[in-house]
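Board notes (copied after class):
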Amino acid sequence: MKQAVKFTFDTYFGDRPCVPDRIEDAEAPRISEAEMEAVRRAAYAEGLAAGEREAAARRDDTLVSAMSQLAESTGALLAALDTQLILTRKEAVMTAMEAARKLAPALVATRPETEIEAVLRNCLAHLNREPHILLRVSLSLVDRLKEAVDRMAMERGLSGRIILLGEPDMKEGDCVVEWADGGVARDRAEIENEITAAVSRYIETLGASGSDENRLAMPEPAPAAGAASRNE
């Protein structure tokens, strides 16, 4: 007797369902014209913004480069201007110095006794008790100075105590005032040398300090009478 087999429901006794040979592709969703236009506008806006950002970055780079070149050019120009300014000021000082050298003798020649009277007047302000005062001048100026010397002596109570002596080798405008324990001399050549040295120092200062005008200053002027004290 055959053994029974358990039924597993594998066998289908009805009609089989109709299965198509292939599965049709699902229909793709459709996008409206308005949606397409919105997508195009968004893409255009994004592209435009990206282009503007790139252009701005390029402008910034160009501006930085231009500013750097401008700074270098400006520095070179200022250096050239400083050099030219120094040269111009040096030339101006030297021109003024040459003009003074030519004018000074002519001015002294018109009235050489003026500076001598100024030197003597300054000395007499401190020499009221001196028994004798000697004034040495050019021999050609003795007669022209005698009246002024006598008048100053009388004003200071020194009548007869100022001796006016002419020196044949002394230049007009130069003088020497001597008393018991000192004296004062005015020598135009020496004064000119001092002025030349002061101008030379000033020109050196121009070269050393560049174009810093606040630090540049002319030396202090010599005394008005142009006198140099000397003690025996």
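Comment from the instructor: The longest helix spans residues 33-110. Residues 111-230 form a domain with the Hypothetical Protein Ychn; Chain: A, fold (CATH 3.40.1260).
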